[in-house]
């Protein structure tokens, strides 16, 4: 399997996250099956409860319902050979709610295994076979998948229910399973023969951790293309604003069919600290049905944007430079700090959507020399709509900062 093929395949599957009714789990499942035993073995390598060699017994394993001969399927039935433990492994690729009825069956089967072992799982498959018009498939399952593990399943008294979900769904699932994994929790490296292919698959699946119903709806809002630039009396020239990870996902998916706004264009983006980029919002627009007038110097094609960001991330992985913009703990009442020119850029990009911290407010800002403002060690900044306690008089809206710089310091540097 060539990397060029797996890259194309995964990009095709990831696009389906934006297609109505597309069932991404059905596409991801068979691919993940190829890697899952090695991936889970590597993921739980240091886990005090789940470490050990993990093998797959069967994908789409049927669990018979208690009062009839119908079944619901667990995505994978796995077995930890080192700990003699059965693993029910369930995949969710979107932040949907838990299927309570289905989950109750999973947990009940886990309890049954603890109480009496796993032989009933084989007996239930036999009963389903006898009632099915597809008895041959159940017989194949019994002979080819279950027979090699019959003794281990019969003697097993340990079982765990594990979910693999996007980060946005983790909180919904916790409490319904013994362990909840997100896609980025999975081991990045596994042994050959498919180590290179897994790196590609892991990278793409990890994007699911950044996608939620909210982010999908933010990406695409219905917009009527304007007949002319005069139709946009408010000066709007972009379709939306997205945070860092979501704009990366969009640029990867849509490439040069979109442009991303960044004051100063490509050069400014390349020179901006990654920590600063991770905290800000990005304007974006369609190329074909773009809104308003744009200064092309301040808009970057999607593929170019992706290339620059991925290169910055790769460089940071090799060494950790001192960032000009530091991410601050959530417990404090600001989102980050930045130097003077980054502060001005933030104000130009986001206007009154952000606040700049300055003790003494506009009076103190006005009375401080431009040189002192430039040499100031850092400026605190925060999103205006963030619900935190702050002294209002010590925080200046972005547009106010720009007006004060222009009016009292004759500073209006284009960024």
Can you tell me about this structure?
With 415 residues, this protein is an alpha+beta fold. The chain has three domains: 3-207, no CATH class; 237-315, no CATH class; 334-407, no CATH class. 44% of the residues lie in helices and 18% in strands. The protein contains 17 helices and 14 strands. It has helices spanning 3-15, 24-43, 100-116, 119-131, 135-146, 150-155, 167-173, 195-206, 213-219, 244-254, 265-271, 274-277, 302-318, 340-350, 361-367, 370-375, 398-409, and strands spanning 54-64, 71-80, 85-91, 158-165, 179-182, 240-243, 258-261, 281-286, 299-301, 326-327, 336-338, 354-357, 379-383, 395-397. A five-stranded mixed sheet has the order 1-2-3-4-5, sandwiched between helices. A five-stranded antiparallel sheet has the order 10-11-13-12-14. Strands 6-8-7-9 form a four-stranded antiparallel sheet. Helix 1 (3-15) runs parallel beside helix 8 and helix 4 (119-131) packs antiparallel against helix 5. The longest helix is centred in the N-terminal third of the chain and has 20 residues, at 24-43. It is elongated, with a radius of gyration of 27 Å. 29% of the residues are buried. Mean pLDDT is 84; it is low at 223-233 and 318-331.
């Amino acid at each position: 399997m060539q990397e060029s093929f797996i890259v194309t395949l995964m990009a095709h599957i990831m696009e389906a996250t934006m297609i109505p009714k597309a069932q991404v789990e059905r596409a991801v499942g068979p691919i993940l099956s190829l890697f899952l035993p090695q991936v889970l073995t590597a993921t739980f390598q240091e886990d005090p409860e789940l470490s050990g060699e993990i093998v797959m017994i069967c994908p789409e394993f049927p669990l018979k319902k208690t009062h009839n001969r119908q079944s619901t399927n667990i995505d994978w039935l796995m077995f930890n050979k080192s700990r003699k433990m059965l693993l029910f492994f369930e995949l969710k690729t979107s932040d949907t709610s838990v299927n309570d009825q289905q989950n109750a069956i999973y947990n009940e089967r886990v309890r049954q295994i603890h109480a009496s072992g796993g032989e009933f799982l084989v007996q239930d498959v036999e009963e389903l076979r006898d009632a099915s018009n597809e008895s041959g498939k159940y017989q194949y399952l019994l002979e080819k998948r279950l027979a090699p593990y019959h003794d281990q399943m019969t003697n097993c008294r340990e079982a765990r229910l594990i979910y693999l979900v996007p980060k946005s769904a983790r909180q919904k699932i916790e409490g319904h399973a013994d362990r909840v994994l997100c896609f980025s929790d999975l081991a990045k490296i596994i042994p050959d023969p498919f180590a290179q292919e897994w790196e590609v698959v892991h990278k793409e699946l990890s994007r699911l951790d950044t996608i939620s119903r909210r982010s999908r709806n933010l990406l695409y809002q219905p917009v009527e293309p304007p007949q002319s630039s005069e139709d946009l009396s408010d000066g709007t020239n972009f379709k939306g604003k997205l945070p860092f990870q979501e704009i990366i996902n969009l640029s990867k998916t849509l490439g040069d069919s979109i442009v991303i706004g960044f004051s100063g264009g490509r050069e400014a983006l390349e020179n901006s600290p990654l920590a600063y980029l991770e905290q800000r919002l990005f304007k974006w627009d369609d190329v074909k049905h773009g809104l308003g007038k744009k200064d092309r110097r301040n808009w970057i094609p999607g593929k170019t944007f992706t290339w620059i960001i991925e290169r910055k991330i790769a460089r940071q992985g090799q060494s950790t430079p001192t960032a000009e913009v530091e991410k601050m703990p959530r417990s404090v009442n600001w989102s980050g700090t930045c130097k003077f020119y980054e502060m001005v850029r933030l104000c130009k990009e986001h206007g009154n959507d952000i606040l700049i911290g300055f003790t003494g407010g506009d009076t103190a800002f006005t009375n401080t020399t431009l040189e002192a403002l430039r040499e100031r060690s850092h400026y605190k900044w925060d999103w205006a709509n963030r619900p935190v306690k702050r002294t209002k008089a010590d925080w200046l809206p972005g547009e106010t900062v720009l007006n004060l710089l222009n009016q009292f310091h004759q500073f209006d540097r284009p960024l």
